[in-house]
C-alpha cells in the first residue's frame, strides 16, 4: 500500500475543524482525511483544542430553537460505520475503485470528453451549489495543459498518480496550488489517474485551445 506523502496544511485542517472552510474545499479535505490516519488524528486534535477554547468562553443564551436544530442536524448525519459502496449518482469509477464516502451526498455528471485520453465530470454539492468541484480522469502517460491559477486549487488523488515537475502525487495524496505555481501534471505510465479538484477562481492555461475549453466548462 502506497504511503501518503502530501497532506493539507494545518490552516486548512483548522478551518475545517472550525467549520469555516467553504463547501468545495471542505469536501476535498474530507476525502483526504477519510484516507489518511495521520490527518484524521490532526483534525481530531484541532477539534479538541477548539472545544477547550469554547469551554473557556463566557456562556451565552441560546435561541429557543437551538436544541431542535442541533438534534435535527445530528439525525441527518450518515453513520460513521457505513461501509464504502458504489454510488449510483456518480460516474462509474475504474474496476476495483470505490468512491470515497465523503462523496455520498454529491451528484455528478457522466464522464465528458476533455481531450484525447481525458475526461471530466462536474460534481454538485447540495450544501454549497456554487462550489466549483470536478472529477478529472486522465489516461496513462497523458498530460494536462500547462497552467497556473487565479486563486486556489485543492486536489485529492483518488486513483493512480501524476508528476507535475515539483513532486510525485499518488493515490491518497493532497495538493494545494495557487498563482505562485506554474505546472503541467503528467499521469504516470502505469495507469490512468482520477482526481477530485476544488477550484477557486480559474485555471489559467498557457495555450489558446486549453483556455477556450477551460472557459467552456467553467474550470
Structure description:
This protein has 219 residues and is an alpha+beta fold. The chain has a single domain, classed as Jelly Rolls (Sandwich). Helix content is 28%, strand content 23%. The protein is built from five helices and twelve strands. The strands form three sheets. Strands 1, 2, 3, 4, 6, 9 and 11 form a seven-stranded antiparallel sheet that branches. About 5% of the residues have low confidence.
Major β-sheet profile: 7 strands, antiparallel
Secondary-structure element string = HHHHEEEEEEEEEEEEH
> Which architecture would the CATH scheme give at its second level?
Sandwich
Number of extended strands: 12
What fraction, in percent, of the residue positions are helical? 25-40%
Shape: globular
Q: How many distinct domains? A: 1
Protein topology:
Layout: H1 10-18, H2 23-35, H3 37-56, H4 66-76, E1 107-108, E2 112-115, E3 118-124, E4 133-138, E5 147-149, E6 153-159, E7 161-163, E8 168-170, E9 174-177, E10 186-187, E11 193-199, E12 203-205, H5 208-216
Antiparallel strand pairs: 1-3, 2-3, 3-4, 4-11, 5-12, 6-9, 6-11, 7-8, 7-10
Helix pairs in contact: 1-3, 2-3
